Amino acid sequence: MAMTEHYLAICAIFRNEAPYLAEWVAFHQLLGVEHFFLYDNNSNDDYAAVLQPFIEAGTVTVHQWPVPFHEKAQRKAYAHCLKSVRHSVRWLAFIDVDEFLFAPRDDTLAKALPDYESWPGVVVHWQNYGSSGRQLHSREPVIERFPWRARSNWVRNRKVKSIVDPSRTTAPLGVHHFEYADGARAVDETKREVRIKPRSRYKKRLKPWYGKLGPLLQYIDPYSAANVDSKVISVERLRINHYPVKSHQEFLGKTAYKKEKRRYEDVDYFAYHDRNEIYDPVIHRYLPALHQRLQSLVDIESRA
Asked: 1 lies in a domain?
């Protein structure tokens, strides 16, 4: 295979994520991510100042992406990124700013990924983390503040995100799955081929009730258009810690701009996702290095 400019890069779209971007970029740098292709979807916070040190270092590229989100902004951003880096990146991960991708058995992702060179993509399962009982925002890193998560076999942990070989990937099928050249399929971390299973219609009709009935309907996922066809959730080689709600204050802050009807739906979303059954601080092993890297950014800013 031809040499590429970057072995591992990330593509992500964001809106008003300034409080979290430095931690998220710095964390993934520790895991061996070499470049970040970020798409700003109409942010009005100070994200540019946060990202400036990374941009100056040549680590981050920001695209202005004003496409309305309901017009498939994320999927279109992914297609644009895929086309732009097709021959310059060996592995491209498509994740969000509330997702932290790592390799539990290895120091970096670059040590884990060579095991999957025979396939055009590998999917990585979530482990969903709740609010850990926190009501208010504080300045500690996200991965430090929220150590409590849902059970490993919770239905939402069947969701995956994709790391793909851009040269063998033709298009995004959504924001979780991709179409590959010559009908090839991605695999999960156990090297099992992935097939996509569409969501049934009755699950969508039940969606407004999940905040109230979530504990009773814990085996049905109302928020996914599709899932992989496996009930085995393996996160021993590759894993994404997903923090969809954070503290109650932070969650309400992200939904404040939405219309009243959507805010009620989001309250149900919080109730459904605020799972804190298992204390699992496995990601805390990165905290010393992360704190050091974040402090260096503060030092750079103070000297500017």
From this structure: no
